C-alpha cells in the first residue's frame, strides 16, 4: 500500500540549498568534559533495521518499566512529540541521543507504528541529520554527544535542522523564520484547540486535521516570507497531521478522537496519560495511509514556496509527491551533504542507504556512490 498515493507531478528534483554547520552550545558540557568524551567515539558497523514485532496487540505501554520522568540537565528533546514522549518514558535513551534501530523498536513497541514507516522515518533522518560513522542521532538540537562530525558540508544537526526533515507549517511548532522551530509553542497550540473546538466538538480528529493542516499552510503563506512547502516537507506534513489521532489515542478506544488534555500531555510535556495503551500495530499502516490521503484530498495543495515575500506562494512542479519521489529527494538531500565520502563514512552511508530503501518496496534503488 502506498504511504501517500496522490500523484501531482514528478521528474527533475528540486535540490535545496543546505546550510553549513553552525556552532551551537554544547549541551551543557565544558570544553574539558568534551575533550575527555570525543576520543571515546569509535566508528561502528550499523546493524540492519529490526523487523516487525511479533506482538502487535493493544497493550499497556505507560507501565512500570517505562515511567514518565522529567528532563534532567542536558537531556535533549525536539520537534517530534512522538520521539520526545518515547524518550521521556525510557523507550528511547532519556538523553535524546539515539540509533535508528532504537527508534524503530521504540515506535513499534510504544506506539504500534508499522515497520515500513518506522524504517522510512528512522533512516531518512539518520542520513540527513545523524552521524552515520558513530550511528548516533540527536532527536533535537546539534550535540557533541553524537561524536566527531564528518567534514562539511555534512551538518549532523539533529532533528531540529531546518530543511532536511523539520519544516514549516507544523501543528504546534513555529516556522523556522520566526525563530524557535522545535519547541512547543503555546500560541499555536491555542489555534490547535480552537480548530478542535470548531470542527471536532472539542477533540482533534480527521475532520479537524484536514482543516487545521490547510489553515497552517495558508497562515504560513500569509505570514512567513520564506515559507517553503516542497518535498520532503510536503509529504511529511500530511502524515504528521494524522499521527495524533491515530497514535496518541488509547488503543482500547481507537476511535480517532484525541482529547485536548491528552494532546497537551504529548505535545508539551512528552508524557503519556496514566494507563495509556498503544494502538493495534497491525492496523496503523492503513490508518495512516488512508487518513493522510483523505486530509490531502479535502484541500489539495501543490508543493511550492513563497518567493521571498508573503503571499507569493508559487507551486513547484518539480517537487515530487509520490513515495519513490520522496525516496529520491532524501537521497539527493543526503548527497548534498556528502559529495565525495571516503572510507568508513562511505561504507556506512551505503549501508544506511540500503536500510533506508527497505522502507520503499516497489521503487528503484539508487546508488549515488556506486554499487
Ligand atoms: C519513527 C521515527 C520518527 C521520526 C524520525 C520523527 C521525526 C519528526 C520530525 C523531524 C518532526 C518535525 C517536523 C516538523 O514539524 O518540522 C516530527 C513531527 C511530528 N511527529 Fe514525529 N517522528 C517519528 C515518529 C513519530 C511517531 C511515532 C509519532 C506519533 C506517535 C510522531 C508524531 C509527530 C507529530 C504529531 C509531529 C508534528 C508536531 C507538530 O508540528 O506539532 N512522530 N517528527
Ligand atoms: C509561536 O508561534 C507564533 C506564530 O508562528 C510566533 O509569532 C511566535 O513568535 C512563537 N513564539 C515563540 C515563543 O517562539
Ligand atoms: C470530528 O468531530 C466532529 C464533531 O463531533 C464530527 O462532526 C466529525 O464527524 C468528526 N470527524 C471524524 C472523522 O470523526
Ligand atoms: C509545558 O511543559 C513544561 C514542562 O512540563 C512546563 O514547564 C511549561 O509550563 C508547559 N508550557 C506551557 C505553555 O504550559
Ligand atoms: C483504507 O482504504 C482502503 C481502500 O479504500 C480500504 O479497503 C481499507 O479498509 C481502509 N483501511 C482502514 C484501516 O481504514
Ligand atoms: C537549522 C537551524 O537553523 N535550525 C534552527 C532552529 O531553531 C533554533 C532556535 O531555537 C536555531 O538555533 C536553529 O539554528
UniProtKB/TrEMBL annotation:
Q: Does the keyword Cytoplasm apply?
A: no
Q: Does the keyword Iron apply?
A: yes
Cofactor(s) of this protein = heme b
Signal sequence bounds: 1-19
Q: Which domain of life is it from?
A: Eukaryota
Residues in Heme haloperoxidase family profile domain copies: 64-289
Pfam families under this entry?
Answer: Peroxidase_2
Annotated protein name in UniProt:
Heme haloperoxidase family profile domain-containing protein
- Lineage of the source organism? Eukaryota, Fungi, Dikarya, Basidiomycota, Agaricomycotina
Amino acid at each position: 500500500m502506498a504511504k501517500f498515493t496522490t500523484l501531482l507531478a514528478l521528474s527533475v528534483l528540486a535540490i535545496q540549498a543546505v546550510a553549513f554547520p553552525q556552532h551551537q552550545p554544547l549541551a551543557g558540557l565544558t570544553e574539558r568534559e568534551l575533550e575527555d568524551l570525543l576520543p571515546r567515539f569509535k566508528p561502528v558497523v550499523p546493524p540492519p533495521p529490526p523487523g516487525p514485532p511479533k506482538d502487535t496487540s493493544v497493550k499497556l505501554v505507560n507501565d512500570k518499566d517505562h515511567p514518565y520522568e522529567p528532563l534532567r540537565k542536558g537531556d535533549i528533546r525536539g520537534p517530534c512529540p512522538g520521539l520526545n514522549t518515547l524518550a521521556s518514558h525510557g523507550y528511547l535513551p532519556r538523553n535524546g541521543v539515539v540509533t535508528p534501530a532504537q527508534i524503530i523498536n521504540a515506535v513499534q513497541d510504544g506506539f504500534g507504528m508499522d515497520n515500513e514507516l518506522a524504517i522510512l522515518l528512522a533512516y531518512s533522518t539518520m542520513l540527513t541529520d545523524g552521524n552515520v560513522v558513530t550511528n548516533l542521532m540527536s532527536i533535537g538540537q546539534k550535540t557533541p554527544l553524537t561524536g566527531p562530525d564528518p567534514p562539511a558540508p555534512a551538518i549532523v544537526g539533529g532533528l531540529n535542522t531546518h530543511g532536511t526533515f523539520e519544516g514549516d507549517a507544523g501543528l504546534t511548532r513555529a516556522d523556522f523564520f520566526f525563530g524557535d522551530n522545535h519547541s512547543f509553542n503555546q500560541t499555536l497550540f491555542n489555534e490547535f484547540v480552537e480548530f478542535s473546538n470548531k470542527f471536532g466538538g472539542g477533540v482533534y480528529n480527521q475532520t479537524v486535521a484536514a482543516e487545521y493542516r490547510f489553515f497552517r499552510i495558508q497562515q504560513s503563506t500569509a505570514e512567513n516570507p520564506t515559507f517553503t512547502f516542497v518535498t520532503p516537507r510536503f509529504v511529511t506534513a500530511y502524515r504528521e497531521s494524522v499521527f495524533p489521532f491515530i497514535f496518541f489515542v488509547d488503543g482500547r478506544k481507537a476511535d480517532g478522537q484525541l482529547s485536548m488534555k491528552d494532546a497537551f500531555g504529548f505535545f508539551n510535556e512528552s508524557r503519556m496519560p496514566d494507563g495509556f495503551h498503544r494502538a493495534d500495530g497491525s492496523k496503523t499502516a492503513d490508518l495512516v495511509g488512508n487518513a493522510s490521503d483523505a486530509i490531502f484530498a479535502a484541500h489539495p495543495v501543490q508543493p511550492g514556496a513563497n518567493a521571498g515575500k508573503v503571499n507569493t506562494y508559487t507551486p513547484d512542479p518539480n517537487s515530487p509527491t509520490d513515495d519513490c519521489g520522496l525516496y529520491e529527494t532524501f537521497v539527493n538531500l543526503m548527497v548534498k551533504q556528502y559529495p565525495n565520502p571516503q572510507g568508513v563514512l562511505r561504507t556506512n552511508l551505503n549501508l544506511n542507504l540500503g536500510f533506508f530503501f527497505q522502507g520503499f518496496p516497489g521503487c528503484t534503488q539508487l546508488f549515488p556512490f556506486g554499487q
